[in-house]
Amino acid sequence: MAATARTSDKFLLHGLAGRCPHCGRGPLFSGFLSVNPVCEACGENLAQHSSDDGPAYFVMSIVGTVVVAALLIVEVNFGWPVWLHLAVWLPLTVVLSLILLRPIKGLMIATQYKTKARDTGEIG
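The chain above was modelled as a monomer; its predicted structure follows.
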């Protein structure tokens, strides 16, 4: 069953949805960003996958690009006062970051599953 699961492209959708990349039924996360050690549905060892700082890097890149581009467009076209920029862009940055962080972490873990990458615990 593991061979058929790894050849399927549904692992990406499972990761984005926060489901086990192996079976797609069990939850990938036990908390907001804490990964379940073992899938409750199929018993797949999920503890061996570690996304480290990858999701944060991608979220910062995506959110930063979108927010800075929007801020510059608004500033050039409308010239908002500083307090309005702060009132709009700071909450938007936080909300977008929180919305994207979990799906991107799930996607990275699913990609590690697909490529059979494992966390060895070694540095360097």
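Residues 1-5 have pLDDT under 50 and may be disordered.
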